[in-house]
Amino acid sequence: MIKSKYESVEEKGITFFFKYDKTNVSVLHIYARHRTTIDDALEVFFNTTALWNKQYQRYENLSHSHGLYWFWRNEQKKEVTVITCFRAASVFRIEQ
User: Fold this and answer.
1) Are 5 and 25 in contact (CB under 8 A)?
2) Which of 16, 27, 40, 61 could form a cystine bridge with 32, CB 3.0-4.6 A?
3) What are the boundaries of each domain within the chain?
4) pLDDT at 2
């Protein structure tokens, strides 16, 4: 079994973990699958309100341009694992 690789980034006292893609191991999953960046994910995280999705056991942040799915890797240590970040238009449309 191959262990997953993560990129870690600290921002505003929180450490974020971004998984590398399984197919293209030199590229982050969020970029390989959705052409989004760490900056996109951080912007959504810090500028929107997270909602808990009980069914999938994850937090979801949605803006007019992006969606972010994540969970606390270790809440006491302020460590977040980013599941994915995607462009909102590719999945749903937010009414203005």
Assistant:
1) yes
2) 27
3) 6-90
4) 63
User: Could you name the CATH architecture of 6-90?
Assistant: 2-Layer Sandwich (3.30)
| Cα gap 70→55, rounded to integer Å | 14
What single string gives the DSSP state of each residue in 34-75?
Answer: H---HHHHHHHHHHS--EEETTTTEEEEE-SSEEEEEEEEET
**For the segment 16-47, what is each residue's pLDDT rounded down to a tens digit?**
999 999 999 999 999 999 999 999 999 999 99
**Tokens encoding 58:** 């994850």
